[in-house]
Amino acid sequence: MFTNKLPRVVSGVGLAACLSLLLLPGFGCGRQPENAVPPAPSAQRWDPFLDTLQAKTLRFFLDVTPRATGLAPDRWPTPAPSSVAAVGFALTCYPIAAERRMITRADAAARVLTTMKFLWNLPQSEHPSGTSGFRGFFYHFIDGRTGERAWKCELSTIDTGLLLAGVLFCQSYFDGEDAAEDSIRVLADSLYRRVDWNWFCGDRKGLITAWYPERGFGEHTWKGYNEAFILYLLALGSPTHPMPDWYMRTWYDTYKWGSFNGIEHLGFGPLFGHQYSHCWIDFRGIRDRYMWGRGLDYFENSRRATYAQRSYGITNPQGFRDYSGEIWGWTACDGPHDTNFVVDGNARGFYSYRAREVTFDWVEDDGTIAPTAAGGSVAFAPEICVPALKAMRDRYGPRLWREYGFVDAFNPTFRTAPAWPDGWFDKDYLGIDQGPIVIMIENLRSGFVWETMKRNTYIVAGLRRAGFGGGWLNLLNTPKEGG
To answer: What's the rounded Cα separation, in Å, for the pair 142 and 11?
Structure first.
């Protein structure tokens, strides 16, 4: 079988020993990372292309989400159920659309209220069918019309977490005194408070990834570093079923620090793991004990991970077509097909949907590039992400850049006649890829989502219980509950 995986390597020396100390106040590894990435620019001229990209991408949620339920589809135009994570991104995008004057605040509130009411009234039980969730959690995929479980999928902690991030964002944004905005705040509180985080820890001392009514909890537990950081913050901030703060040891115990093309950072291969939590949380200047020991914050870490991916595009060690300093970006995305064949004299393995990743201990690369990788990192490193996005638009035109911005992915190396003589290009947009593009453009422009979430008491409580301090957290006046 052909494979494009590069082998795992040992990353870091004495990491377990360092982490055991980092969980105690005042201790850290004390080793400072290399300064292989230039400092973030203090100011950068705004590129109007970002306005166009954001507006086109926002239209995805405004146009294809059913108004009757508010359940954003997992993908479009291929028929698909709703992904509750995509719903969380959609909820966050409606206020952005209002701030950008694409819709009115009243329209945004109406869309949010419809969604939250529908979610709150959906049946929750342990039964395998006729329900949408259990103990406050939702199934990963639910029918966009009925809200019922689709595809016998899992009850999902991370997808529920991304949904709740959007819910709490709306709770803090809609602070008006009218009936609609008041109802949004009440429903947001209810949706968040009923989630039983302790139940989903089982006996693992950490959050389990999945539960199935047919067989119970899945075998995996969320361990860092990955996209689930916001999940632990939500679990810690709960006023009703808070996870014990010492469960954070489980999160930290698989952290891997290493160097990739001379860029030291906390590793996770696909860029979505460096992006999703940052959509809502401003990690600039705040640190937990691990990052105090490393001398940087998670925002800078994501910036380094973004630069590391670009460096991989430049070196292109496996010789894929079109990779360069402007054509790069690896994350979870669609792919052309699960198959193997010879291209340009090389035996290649190709995949369908998969988490593509490039980092210091693992490379999973089949020549597929996802524009959301650069788009979701635009707030970290606009000086390299904006040129990449513009280069992809200019080079591939309508094969990649269409009605709602960038389609999910493309693969210039996958060339088969007659279907794909010039490479493979996806036909679908994915909600979980569209959302980070919209949100991180707005955070780059104004910090709007970040600043709004700083007013949410639950998020602030979660950060503090996780041991974060410094920066804006130290300056914050605690808002009223629910914020």
So the answer is: 39
pLDDT tens digits for 294-334? 999 999 999 999 999 999 999 999 999 999 999 999 999 99
Measured between alpha carbons, how far is residue 321 from residues 223, 289, 399, 412 in Å?
35, 42, 16, 6
What's the pTM?
0.92
Q: What digits encode the pLDDT tens for the residues 386-415? A: 999 999 999 999 999 999 999 999 999 999
Q: Within this chain, do residues 131 and 246 fall inside the same structural domain, yes or no?
A: yes
How far, in Å, CA of 350 to CA of 336, rounded? 7
Give yes or no: residues 112 and 214 share one domain.
yes
For residues 340 and 413, membership in a common domain is answered with: yes
Predicted local distance difference test score (pLDDT) of residue 481: 53
The residue segments making up the domain with residue 291 are 270-432
Number of domains in the chain: 2
How many residues can be counted in the chain? 483
Exposure string (b/e) for 371-410, b if CB count within 10 Å is 16 or more?
bbbbbbbbbbbbebbbbbbbbbbeebeeebbeebbbbbbb
Indicate which CATH number applies to the domain containing 474: 1.50.10.140
User: What is the rounded distance in angstroms from the CA atom of residue 235 to the CA atom of residue 305?
Assistant: 26
